[in-house]
Amino acid sequence: MLENNFNAIDLIIRQEQTGDHKDVFNLIEEAFQHMDVSDHREQFLVERLRKSNAFVPELSLVAEIDEQIVGYILLTKVLIRNEDQEHISLTMAPVAVRPDFQRCGIGSVLIRKSHEIAKRLQFSSVTVLGHADYYPKFGYVEAQQFGIRFPFDVPPQNCMVIELVEGGLSNTSGIVEYPPPFFE
Ligand SMILES: CC(C)(COP(=O)(O)OP(=O)(O)OC[C@H]1O[C@@H](n2cnc3c(N)ncnc32)[C@H](O)[C@@H]1OP(=O)(O)O)[C@@H](O)C(=O)NCCC(=O)NCCS
Fold first, then answer.
1. Residue bearing the CA closest to ligand 1, atom 39
2. Which listed site, 65, 67, 107, 112, has its alpha carbon 20 to 30 Å from 168?
């Protein structure tokens, strides 16, 4: 059920600016407030990631309607590493839409836009730990298909990856190495 109707034309997706940090903090806090699987600290994770080497400013995006921030997505750098090689990838964490604007398509627009920018920046894959019903519609598949493992004790169907370009994960396997802000 749509609680808020908006014209697609009113929706702006743009890179986050420093002046947005407070609104983004509040939005993430609100979006995850009633989520059982959340530690309700995703807003602090974003604060730490912004200061880390994993941060890619072009991949910190806000969705705006009528000058209000209603959605946010962040893709940061991770490595997929095995004994022989390492592959630079990204992880999507978090994606959040203000509760009164959820299920209107904003999350989908943010995810697709982040993929488009990541591809332009020459990244060839994205990893995500998330809901098995949500991400496959964007092209995510179980990471274990590529021999890619996540360093968390979660069911395999929640550990997903997408190739942004054909063969983006060919010859890539191993464990996803998250940057330190994820463990602080
Ligand atoms: C998950 C979230 C970002 C999705 O954003 P959204 O704008 O509501 O999503 P969309 O409207 O683009 O939804 C697209 C589709 O996903 C479905 N969907 C939305 N949220 C879902 C969820 N939590 N689980 C499963 N499916 C979901 C919608 O029904 C819709 O399906 P349809 O296209 O077949 O109708 C948003 O609901 C949110 O902020 N949730 C709280 C925070 C969260 O869980 N973040 C993800 C983990 S990092």
1. 96
2. 107
